[in-house]
Specification:
4 helices, alpha/beta, two-stranded antiparallel sheet, globular, MobB_dom, 8 strands, 6-stranded parallel sheet
Length: 165
């Protein structure tokens, strides 16, 4: 399974880009999955639902199944956050896994940078960033620069870099 990360500061447009590139990759016949790292507590479940009650009662995992999807919720409780490697092993193998976030993990990454946000580039401190998708040209940057507003070119770059082209 090939892996490509999408990293950048909060509000840079990582999710917006990912949801534009994903259908382009799917249209080329690739099976693509995504993984997203959240820095805040979140819940896909709601109080009052049976699955919520199962977790609140102490279940380590709850699997909810319908005819159109299934979701496995794992309660970490006192466990540390799992490693990205262990999470990838839990995923069904596909052609390409796009990972949003997990900035510090060593895997190939595309940095999303909006000069207008006034935030520094991540790539000088991260040798795993292989290119920067930006809204304005960045002089003196040795890495490939991609137009943030051209998702097709970004999809092409991801395919070429991962060897899926």
């Amino acid at each position: 399974m090939k892996v490509m990360g999408i990293v950048g500061w909060s509000g840079s447009g990582k999710t917006s880009l990912l949801v534009q590139v994903l259908p382009l990759l799917r249209a080329r016949g690739l099976r693509v999955s995504t993984m997203k790292h959240a820095h805040h507590r979140f819940d896909v479940d709601r109080p009052g639902k049976d699955s919520f009650q199962h977790r609140e009662a102490g279940a380590s995992e709850v699997l909810v199944v319908t005819s159109s999807r299934w979701v496995l919720m794992h309660e970490s409780r006192e466990e540390p956050e799992p490693s990205i490697e262990s999470l990838i092993q839990r995923m069904t193998p596909v052609d390409l896994l796009l990972i949003e976030g997990f900035k510090t993990h060593p895997h190939p990454k595309l940095e999303i940078h909006r000069k207008s946000e006034g935030r520094p580039l991540l790539c000088p401190g991260d040798p795993d960033i292989v290119a920067v998708a930006t809204d304005q040209p960045l002089p003196d940057l040795a890495l490939p620069q991609l137009d943030l507003n051209d998702p097709a070119a970004i999809a092409d770059f991801i395919l070429a870099h991962t060897g899926l082209a």
